[in-house]
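Blinded run. Sample ID left blank on purpose so nobody reads anything into the name before looking at the predicted structure. Input follows.
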Amino acid sequence: MALVGKKAPSFVAGAVINGEEIVTDFSLDQYIGKNHVIFFFYPKDFTFVCPTELHAFQEKLAEFEKRGAVVVGCSTDTEETHLAWLNTPKDNGGIQGVTYPIVADASKTIAMNYGVLAGEYEFDADTQLWSFKGAPVAYRGTFLIDKEGIVRHESINDLPLGRNIDEYLRLLDAQLHVEKYGEVCPANWEEGEKAMKASTEGVIEYFSNN
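Blinded prediction complete.
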């Protein structure tokens, strides 16, 4: 079920912040009323595609922050595994230098609540045992959450498909434009281009904010 237009599922979990400090009570609720959030899931620490994405988000971090947004990552690994990966140099497949928070979802409940877990638990009534069918990791889910804690965009990539980080900057720009001007953004809209607004007669009018 899509989360767009709904309150982002709340959680309290362990995380690594500033690339070096483990905390036990991290929550996205701390950003409500303050920041937009780009919350993204990735499958697993110490893999191949994942570090390229985490470094790509880090490379664009100043651009997100300039727009008043924070970036937060999450996987089903533990916070200790996150920290070990953060202490591994980039040339060795690590993510040393990443400074935004990385949440630990070892219980997989956050991934389940956001609808990105690449599998599901099944109960066998005969054996009275639970089993897991699929991959016990998160798909590459990405969520744009506004200052009120409402999900405004979500996208989910299959495990082999890396993201385009610039697209999330474009979507953030569009969301900020909608909030500021009350206009809607057409296909391929980018900051500085004409937006659209429905008039009282139902006719689409174009506006430029250059």
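Unblinding after everyone has recorded impressions. The longest strand covers residues 129-138.
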